[in-house]
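Title: Prediction job returns without error message
Component: structure pipeline
Severity: low
Priority: P3
Assignee: unassigned

Description:
Job completed but the reporter wants confirmation the result is attached to the right record. Sequence as submitted:
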Amino acid sequence: MSAADSPVKAVLFDRDGTLVHDVPHNGDPDLVRPVDGAREAVALLRAHGIRVGVVTNQSGVARGLISDGDVRRVNRRIDDLIGPFDVWAVCPHGPDDGCHCRKPQPGLILWAAGRVCAAPADCVVIGDIGADTEAAERAGARGILVPNDRTRPQESAAAAHVAPDLLTAVRALLTGPPTGRILANERPIEAAYGPGPASTGPRTAADDGRPGPAQTPSATAPGRGVFRPGDATHRDGGAARGSVVGGRRGRSS
């Protein structure tokens, strides 16, 4: 089945905790580790002609914790290991900057959908916290929560669709939008709801939903230039094709 036969035209993934294991403010490509099933899930979508992208909050830019060069290298590594992705959309703002792109606001979803020429209603967003699925809902897309050990139980309870792992989430939408709240797998669904270790604490939407670096490789040339909100062109002189999304640069928190 091709994308033309399916209402799902694009799948937009959260990054840290969804596609790759969460490493706080990671600037080292050698620390990038895909989660189980990530490569297979993305390959399956591409084989069915469904576009794939990444939408992620990365306040490390606003906080000055990581350089643009680090960001490019980490994202090139993710493209090498899992992708290539058709679009990357990143919010570089801090929690108090009031931008329109920072999840759970819908800006990242709307921008990424436009870049792959898909209506938001034809997109599915897959993430590991409530901010991901809320951003999808606000944008008019569908959301699937794939909980991990730092997902809050109330986020799992509130999600319209929950899958125990990434590959199950992707398989559930190959024939159309997800249906039903619990997406089936051979694993017990209780595995999707297990509370995280007390030492890690819950992840919160007030601080990215996860601590991680910023990134902005190109939509069509994975891993290329990072540029600031408001830049009209790519730093290599070409048109801006994949970018940090947002208006003015917010103050660091």
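Comment from assignee: result matches the submitted record. Strands lie at 10-13, 51-57, 87-91, 123-127, 142-145, 243-244.
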